[in-house]
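Sanity check. The docking grid for adenosine-5'-diphosphate depends on where the pocket ends up, so I'm generating a full predicted complex first rather than guessing from homology. Inputs follow.
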Amino acid sequence: MTKTLVSVALWALAGYLLGTWFNPHLGWGVLVFGLLLMILVSGRQVSLITRWAKDVESAPPVSVGPWDDILSLIYRKLRNDRQTIQRLENDMQRMLEAAEALPDGAVTLDGQMHLTWCNRSAREHLGLLSETDVGHSIFNILRAPEFAIYARQRRWKDPLQLHVQGVDQPKTLLLQLVNYGLNRYLMVTRDITQIEKLETTRKDFVANVSHELRTPLTVLTGFLETLQDMPPDSLTSDQRLRYVGMMREQAARMEAIVSDLLTLSTLESSSPADAEAIDFSALIHKAMQQARVLSRGQHVFVESYDDSLQVEGVASELASAVSNLITNAVRYTPQDGTITVSWYRDDDGSAVFSVQDTGIGISAQDLPRLTERFYRADRGRSRATGGTGLGLAITKHVAMRHDAELRIESRYGSGSTFSLVFPATRILPSEST
Ligand code: ADP
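Predicted complex below; grid placement will be based on this.
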């Protein structure tokens, strides 16, 4: 404004001076010319500003006289706003990325329960497709009747447990609806398939343990009651010895189960003990002594050990795994069968302990379940030979704790090979042996 007034004053002064010195007409002419020039310049400036206003993202006109100050204020404000918008957009993007990465599924629904957005986990849990499902009613997408009943409550205190068909297997989801904002809903889903499986396994395990212990306990109680009800001296000393012997057998069976359970629980819950150099051949020799006692000369043993091959590990754990595999071979191989025990370094660098027998073998359908706790392929033989059904579960745990693999190959009726394969990283260099 000041600049404009100064310009008008200068043109007026110039007009006045020229009018006084030369001719008043010349003075007026100069003044009118000056004012017209100012109007022209001003019009040009306004058109430059108008052009910029149509595209405020572009740089403002460089010089527009008296408008410069206003323009620089507007331009600064615009720049600040743009930075704020950019910051908000970045925040929003980060929040969306976080929501997308949530391990729980999240789905937003509008007042009519139409899907407005969902994250990756929700797409996986519910098989949603962002491109096609957005805008559609959730009732058309999730057709389980229990979901419809749950969703129509409109007040959701507890989550709903929902069974859905996943891509390759059924899934169990925990689904919770929540109100947020004005008439908007958030649906949260959590995949609890594994938790449910674990819970079932835990329940099965408790049932199995109870069952395993109840059988010998019932037999033991039966004997005790019989003995109690009998008149004193009605048993001969031979009978008494036989009864006590049978009772001891049942007690021993319970003891074996409890002892194996404790071993298993220690293996599952404790961190591995410090590894030491294991003279594996010595460990096998010891187990073979027990095996010979168990076999009572009924089997042929073939042995081949690389005495220089040592691994790092925990002696007590490895001893129990080795003894398990060898005694199993004896127990599940009929008389005159051959049991081949080897300890060698394989071509791929791993160390292999293998027990091969010519025994009863295992059918293909039993093979994958053999290391489950209390799983027995041949129940009768297992019980008759004092098996607890926990030996291979223990062996598998020991293998895992030594980065080793328990491999089982078998054909029903023609024998089995159980191997513990240790990676090269577990093998001690032979100089230190
Ligand atoms: P168990 O105490 O019953 O022997 P394990 O866990 O050691 O329990 O073995 C599980 C089951 O695997 C056994 O009940 C048996 O049916 C089968 N099995 C184990 N080793 C052999 C083998 N060498 N030959 C045939 N079957 C075997």
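Relevant for the grid: Residues 324, 328-329, 332, 357, 359-362, 370, 376-378, 382, 387-393, 416 surround adenosine-5'-diphosphate (CB under 6 Å).
Also worth noting: The chain is about 50% helix and 20% strand.
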